[in-house]
Amino acid sequence: MTASQTLDTRVPARAGVEVDIAGTCWPVYKLEALGAGLLSFLAVALVLGSLQAGVLLSTAVCAVLWTLGWWRTAR
Description:
two-stranded antiparallel sheet
């Protein structure tokens, strides 16, 4: 009698795409969040001329995008 072979046909709902940076795998959503945070910092710092406002806004943008990206891949 042979053992029955089961095929695992389940596909992950959302396989996160990762980028290898210096030997460490980074999910793309983290890199996108950091890029958006940097762009928002530069825009606010140039338009308003205030580094403090740029840092606060870019931190908020980065944190929201990072959390949303994690939430999307966790589901």
